[in-house]
Amino acid sequence: MEPGRREARPVTAKANQKKAGAARRKGKRTAAERKAEEAKKLAVIDKAAQLDAGTYGIRRTTLAAEAGMPVGFLDKAVKERHADTRKALAAAVEEELARNASESTNAAAPDPFALPTEEELTEERRKIDEASKRLADIKDDDVRERVMLRFCEAQKIPKKIMARAVHKERMCRDTKLPRMLENGSQVDIADHLTTELRKKHPDGGVPYTLGDFFEYVHVNKALAREEGRWVPIPVEDMHKLVHRYEGQRMLGGGSVSLSSGAVEGIIKESRMILAQRDFFDDAPVGVNCLDGFTRFDDTGEPHLLPHNHGNKQLHTLQAHWHEGASGEIPKTSMFWKLLNGSFLHDPDRAEKIGLLQLVFGAAIAGITTKLPNAKATIFYGPTANNGKSQLIEVLTGLFPESAVASVAPGDFGDQHKVIHIAGKRVNASDELSTAKAIASDKFKEAITGNRLSGRDLYRSLIVFKPVALHVFAANLLPVFVGGMDKGTRRRLLLIPFLRTIPEDEQEGNDFGQRIAVEEADIVLAWAVEGARRLVKAGRFPNPKWAQKALADWAATSDPVYAWCSRKIRFVDDDRRTISEPVAYASFKAWAVLQGFSSSHLPAHSQFMQRATAEVTASGIIVGENGFQRALLLDPDSPEERTALAEALCKLDQGTAAERTRVLAANKAHEPALTVVEGGRTERNKALRVFGHPEE
Question: Which residues of 246-256 are buried (b: 16+ CB within 10 A; e: fewer)?
């Protein structure tokens, strides 16, 4: 040993313990403790690196505390571990590709940019869905990881895609949603909501149409009976379905927070996804009753089929019908008493009851707007207590309230009122409104089933195709100041009720409602027979008494129609011509004498336009020279002759002397106007004025 240097003492366990105790007292860690802490940190970093981004974002603070390191240090360590993993994976992939290339040197190299086919993608999705459900059932994480690796290697599916699918499946099971939310946006939640609705309603889904979401209800649980109809989902129920997403976790981290505006936005997006505007437009012709759906074949024969969502029925009649049911009304029934009493002693009684049967049949079968001569029916009775209102009560009482509307023709132009006939089978009103409303385009569109637009208060505008039968009751018929054109007359079916039922035969104001409740099966069988006849015929009949009733109404309110029907006739003679000025002069003179106001008569051009539409069907030709092959009938009275002559004298027809002779001729009683003095030229001019052949 060197001089001045002490001999080193051997290190013992006791000495180490003393050093460790001294280090602890000074706040220092031993080498063993530092090694244990480093191992713990590495374990936490490995654990964090295996988590997906969403779960790591939720647990990063807890993991950092567990590792005893700042959150930023943990984030950096995890990123480095991910980078190392990617490098190792890339090296493994390169090694695998090199090995595969060496094994298949003679094989053609696949195109690295070739896209998978739709069949390949579908098959891969199916495998991933099935595998994710089975892997989610494995509770042990290590076992699930090893099984997933083997599956991915066998099926050549990327592990990342498979891991994400398993994570979604496990999260969905925890949240009880059809599938996990991606980002919680309104579109994302609406997509989830509509998927859930489709799975919940496999029979036809949940279409959005007529301003509502609809679901098919086969059995009414509240009433414990079959109905087989589509019903709207209440707005509050849709809001409750959206409310369930409040607080749900998302794959990207965080949870859903819904405001009132967000709920409305989700429902609005759901409407766009499920929108089927024409869903009910192709509904088959038939009657939906308690026993099933009565469908009519091409020959009109009815057949009872089971309720089905494909029938697309919105309403169920609260009555029973079976194949072979008689359409005859028992003579002892209240319904027969009402029909018989309303038309007793009427010469057209049988035809009127038969036409009423067709009207009822058109309503229950929903065929009104499908007919080429769709019509609105008017029950007209100039006196009260003639049964027309009670028959409307029977018709509307046969349907549930959801199938009946009460919108007057004057309200068809109001989008807030016309919306109430959307999806309805019957529109019945005791108000006929004005002649202007009946002649409007909106009225014609509603009758023939053209698309209309309307909206409920505070709701969006919707476009719908009306299918309702329109029936109105009136004691007075409105006067058409501007005239009733042919288009309006073609869409009206006027049924006169000419008998006033005596008081001793009346059964009370609720007679029609009692019939609809107590004799619903009788009325339905009678109406089904009417629908059978109507489907077979393909159109409404137009009996002579109905034509006369409508013609009388038009004649009292339309001066052009009345003049054409009473003062002009077709003749098979090309020499017969009535000039436009003479025809208009005759019209004005006759109309004023009939009581029409001269201030409300149409102008010359309007008169010619409407008169042309009226007389063309009879064979009269309207051209530059006026009405050809037409005969203007002679005045009916001296007053009409004078008025016509004065009107002619105001026209530029020949010289003043010739107009004077015409005036003198009209004051005479010779219908052929052959008393004009003078030569043949003067007489022929006078004869041409009235369309008579020249000498």
Answer: eebbbbeeeeb
- Please give the pLDDT value at position 177: 55
Q: Is the Cβ–Cβ distance between 587 and 560 less than 8 Å?
A: yes
Q: How far apart are CA 381 and CA 391, in angstroms?
A: 13
Average pLDDT for 222-237: 83
Q: Which residues contact 682 (CB under 8 A, 6 or more apart)?
A: 658, 661, 676
Which of 15-29, 38-52, 541-555 shows the highest mean pLDDT? 541-555
Rounded Cα distance between 363 and 396, Å, is 10
Least Cα distance to 56 among 34, 77, 26, 35 occurs for: 77
Kindly report the three-state secondary structure assignment for every residue of 525-557. HHHHHHHHHHHHHCCCCCCHHHHHHHHHHHHHH
Tell me the C-alpha distance between 210 and 463, whole Å: 8
Amino acid at 99: R
**Residue 470's closest CA among 418, 522, 506, 518?**
418
CA distances from 44 to 51, 56, 74, 326 (A): 11, 12, 9, 84
**Which two tokens mark 563?**
């003049």
Burial of 20 (0-12, 13-18, 19+ CB in 10 A): middle
Rounded to an integer, what distance in angstroms lies between the CA atom of residue 264 and that of residue 260?
6
217 bridge partner residues: 229
Record the tokens describing residue 99, joined without a space. 């090995």
308 phi and psi, to 5 degrees?
-155, 145
Q: What is the mean pLDDT of the chain?
A: 81
**CB of 317 closer than 8 Å to CB of 289:** yes
Residue 463 is classified by DSSP as E
The H or E element spanning position 569 is strand 568-570
* Three-class secondary structure of residue 523 per DSSP: helix
Position of tokens 């089927």?
Answer: 276
Element (H or E) spanning 90, and its range?
Answer: helix 71-103
What does the block give as tokens for 27? 């706040």
CA distance 658 to 664: 10
